[in-house]
Amino acid sequence: MAEIIGVKIFSLEKYVGVSPAQIQLPFNFVLDFNLTAGVVIWPIVFVTSDLINEYFGKPGLKRVSYLTAGFIAYSFIIIYYSTTLPPADFWLELNKEKYGSGFDIDGAFSLIFRQGLGIISGSITAFLVGQIIDAHTFHYLKSLTGNKRIWLRATGSTLVSQLIDSFVVLFVAFYVFGNWPFKQVLAVGTINYIYKFTIAVILTPVLYLAHNLIDKYLENDENN
User: Fold this and answer.
1) What pLDDT, on the 0 to 100 scale, is given for residue 39?
2) pLDDT band with cut points at 50, 70 and 90 for residue 86
3) Which residue of 11, 125, 127, 213 is most buried, as measured by CB atoms within 10 A?
4) Cα–chain-centroid distance for residue 51?
């Protein structure tokens, strides 16, 4: 889902009803809280990745990651093929009547979804690299702390893996395949990274709750 909706960049400031932050940094670098719509489902990804890491280990997370990459690639093929299908004339005309004679619904369809193909290409690379790094970092921290400090291994692995994921996917999607300047990639990538790390910290109590529920379920299952 993130690959499809990620082509839209939204303003967090507008969403909450405040003015753009316009944070001035060195080298004429300005940061606003603009994010890809794909980060909307990040909280789900964070919690599920941590739980898979915790209970199924590196092999489990890698298996799910490779399977997910396969689904992303499958989506890539289907979406690309759908953009090559010739449009029906009545479909073009009805949308011109509704939105104006200059409106090309087929062109809009291809523009949005082929832009999504860039995100898919970048995401497969970023997702696999990020998830593998996440798994290794998570279990390295777990080897140091044992079963304690869930927050450390969860947020620590996220801090490392998402540094790669947040920038690689934008670079491939919008710089290589798109028309963004490199500064824009850095700006949006930085805000995406800050957002993901903040969400990871905020959701720490949810992780503890999920761990407790699963542990109790497993204990009851063993007793039965």
Assistant:
1) 85
2) very high
3) 127
4) 18
Task: Say how far apart CA 30 and CA 114 lie, in whole Å.
Answer: 29
**Which phi and psi (to 5°) does residue 10 adopt?**
-115, 155
Q: Give the least confident one: 32-36, 116-120, 203-207, 209-213.
A: 116-120
Per residue in 184-193, pLDDT tens? 888 888 888 8
| DSSP code for 78 | H
The residue range of the domain holding 64 is 2-223
Separation of alpha carbons 23 and 147, rounded Å: 40
AA letter at 119: I
Q: Is 28 exposed, middle or buried (0-12, 13-18, 19+ CB in 10 A)?
A: exposed
